[in-house]
């Protein structure tokens, strides 16, 4: 049975980007005909969370059940990426990451992987990406997963969608990594020289 996951940032006493999490949650519930309440806020509890800490609030769910897990979040240090190719389909946020972890095992001495599909840049193992050229920040038009932070940044036009070819990486100066737990103001920036084939 497929299991899905929603990861929400709890910081400064509030859950962040709920509109975007709600949209993804509803889409998943409807697409897979899950028999659970679709109002995401009904599963959010602050009781045991401290307002002066950053938490990863995870909701794991499948056809008939739902579980909640919280943990204090510590941002990983990522300074280099290994470029790997895959035909992976991860259009919904599945809790099973076996195929992603298999790709991650190819990272060699790098901190993470940058996944390409059909010659196009997609995502890292945990983050959406945006690349900087002389004009603006661009995010892949077809990532493996359209993350909630990515959707917010695209809607606000902070980043722009574009097909980014592996062969065109030299046209960019930096790559930024971000996700629900790593907002844009706290994004991880890596020089293009730290992406390795």
Observed structural traits:
197 residues, alpha+beta, 5-stranded mixed β-sheet, 4-stranded antiparallel β-sheet, 3 helices, 13 strands
* Series of secondary-structure elements, N-terminal to C-terminal: EEHEEEHEEEEHEEEE
Oligomer status: single chain
Net shape: globular
Query: What class, by secondary structure content?
Result: alpha+beta
SS summary, helix count: 3
Unreliable spans are none
Largest sheet: 5 strands, mixed
Radius of gyration: 17 Å
> How much beta, percentage-wise?
25-35%
Q: Provide the residue-averaged pLDDT.
A: 96
In total, how many beta strands?
Answer: 13
End-to-end CA span:
36 Å
Q: Kindly report the spatial arrangement of strands forming the biggest sheet.
A: 10-9-8-11-12
Percent helix, as a range, is 10-25%
Written account of the structure:
- The protein has a 5-stranded mixed sheet, with helices on one face. A 4-stranded antiparallel sheet has the order 2-1-3-4.
- It has 3 helices and 13 strands.
- The longest helix is centred in the first third of the chain and has 14 residues, at 18-31.
- With 197 residues, the protein is an alpha+beta fold.
- It is 15% helix and 32% strand.
How does the SSE layout of this entry go?
Layout: E1 4-11, E2 14-15, H1 18-31, E3 55-61, E4 66-72, E5 81-85, H2 98-104, E6 112-117, E7 120-124, E8 128-132, E9 137-140, H3 148-155, E10 160-162, E11 174-178, E12 188-191, E13 195-196
Parallel strand pairs: 5-6, 5-13, 9-10
Antiparallel strand pairs: 1-2, 1-3, 3-4, 6-7, 8-9, 8-11, 11-12
């Amino acid at each position: 049975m497929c299991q899905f996951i929603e990861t929400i940032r709890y910081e400064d006493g509030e859950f962040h980007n709920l509109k975007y999490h709600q949209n993804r949650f509803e889409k998943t519930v409807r697409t897979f005909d899950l028999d659970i309440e679709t109002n995401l806020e009904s599963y959010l509890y602050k009781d045991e969370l401290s307002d002066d800490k950053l938490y990863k609030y995870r909701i794991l769910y499948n056809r008939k059940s739902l579980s909640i897990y919280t943990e204090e979040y510590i941002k990983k240090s990522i300074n280099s990426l290994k470029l790997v190719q895959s035909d992976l389909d991860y259009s919904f946020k599945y809790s099973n990451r076996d195929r992603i972890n298999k790709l991650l095992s190819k990272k060699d001495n790098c901190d993470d992987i940058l996944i390409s599909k059909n010659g196009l840049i997609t995502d890292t193992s945990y983050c959406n990406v945006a690349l900087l050229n002389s004009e603006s920040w661009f995010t892949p038009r077809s990532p493996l997963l359209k993350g909630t932070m990515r959707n917010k940044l695209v809607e606000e036009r902070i980043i722009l969608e574009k097909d980014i070819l592996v062969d065109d990486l030299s046209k960019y100066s930096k790559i930024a990594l971000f996700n629900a737990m790593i907002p844009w103001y706290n994004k991880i920036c890596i020089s293009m020289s730290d992406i390795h084939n």
